Amino acid sequence: MGDSHPPAHEWSYRVPSPPRLYVPPPPIHTLSGAPAVPFDHHLNLDFMSTGFDNNDFLKTVTYDHYIPSHAITYWQYEARRNAQQVLPFLYLGPISAARDHEFLVSQGITMLLAVRDIRVVNARLLGSKAALELGIPCSTIDTSGNQELIGQFPHGIEIINAHLSEIHKQNQSTLATGKAPTLGKVLVFCETGNERSAAMVAAYLMAMYSMDFVKAIQIIHAQRFSVSFDDSLRHLLHTFDCILQAKRDVIHSGQQAGGAATSTSQGHSLGPTSREVLRKPSKRALDETLEDDVNMDAEPDPNDVARFARRAGAAPFLDDGGS
Q1: Span 47-86, pLDDT tens digits
Q2: What CA–CA distances, in Å, run from 64 to 28, 41, 184, 192, 215?
C-alpha cells in the first residue's frame, strides 16, 4: 500500500480479545487494617430463588460464630499447600490437603470434591487415598479445559448441596437420641487449589448467596491469597453471573405471574419448571410487527431510516488526492 493511501485508523495484527475485567483487592478496614469483606447471611435470604434444590440446610447454618480469618494480613508462602475455610462448611485447597490425614480428621471434612482436568484423570494423578482410608466420599468434576467449567458449575453446586443436605437430615434424626449433631464440611480442591477449584467455590457463592463475581472473588482472595483468577476465569465467572441473574429474573417473574414457577434443578438445569412461564413471551417478536406482504415500492421503514440514513461511513484508508 503506497503512501497515498494512509490508514484511517490504527491497525493491529493481534487476535481481537475481550476487554479486561478488573477486580480490585478486598477493601481494608480503616480501624483494624484487616480486609473488610462483608458476608451477608440472614434467614430472610431467598435461597429458593437460586433454582437449586437441597438448600434447606442453609437456613439453619448461622454465621454468628463465624468470623472470616482474612489471611491476607498474615499470609505466608507455605500456606498455599494448606486448605483454607471459605464458609463454615466449605474449604478450598490443593491436592496435598486432600491427602493429609490429620487435616481431614481435625477439620471434620465429610466429603471431597475434586475439580480435575481430563488429562490428569487419564494419568490417575489426582486422587486421595486418605479419603478412602477414612471412609470419606469423594466426588469429581472432570473437564478438558477451563471453558467447560461453566457447564459444570451447576453440577458441582448440586453435589455440594446434596451432601450437606443429607448430613443435615441425619442430624435431624439424631436429635431425639441426644447425640451432638455434626456439621457437614466439603473440601473443594484441584492440583494447586488456586484456579479450577477456586472458580467452583466462587460459583457456589454467586449461585447460593446472590453475589456478583467481583465480591465472590474478593471473599475467596481474602481467605486464600494464592488464588489466581486470570482473564479467562474472570470472563467465565462474569458470564455465569449473567446467566444466574437471568434465571433469577425468570423465576421472580414467574412467581409474580401466579406462583406456578417453582425453582428446581435437574442435572445441569437452573430455572422454573412451569412451561407456561417459559412459553409466555415478554413482548412481540419482530415478524409480528411486520405485514405478510411487503411492497418493495413503498416508502422505507421509518425505523430503518432512523438507524441507517444518517449513519456516516468509515473508510479503512484515507485518500490524500495523490496518484
Answers
A1: 555 556 656 667 666 544 455 566 777 788 899 999 999 9
A2: 21, 9, 17, 31, 20
* E strand segments, the chain: 84-87, 90-94, 111-117, 138-143, 186-190, 263-264, 271-272
Residue 95 cell numbers, joined: 491436592
Q: Which of 126, 101, 107, 108 is nearest to 192 (CA)?
A: 126
Question: Beta strand 90-94 with 84-87: parallel, antiparallel or unpaired?
Answer: antiparallel
Question: Per-residue pLDDT tens for 226-283?
Answer: 999 999 999 999 999 999 988 888 877 777 776 544 444 444 445 434 333 334 445 5
Give the three cell numbers for residue 140.
469429581
- Tell the residue number behind the cell numbers 468509515, with chain if given: 314
Q: What are phi and psi of 170, to 5 degrees?
A: -65, -40
Q: Rounded to an integer, what is the distance from CA 204 to the centroid of its chain?
A: 6
Strands 111-117 and 84-87: unpaired
Spatial distance between the Cα atoms of 73 and 141, rounded to a whole number of angstroms: 32
- Counts of helices then strands in the chain (DSSP H, E): 10, 7
In this structure, are strands 138-143 and 111-117 parallel, antiparallel, or unpaired? parallel
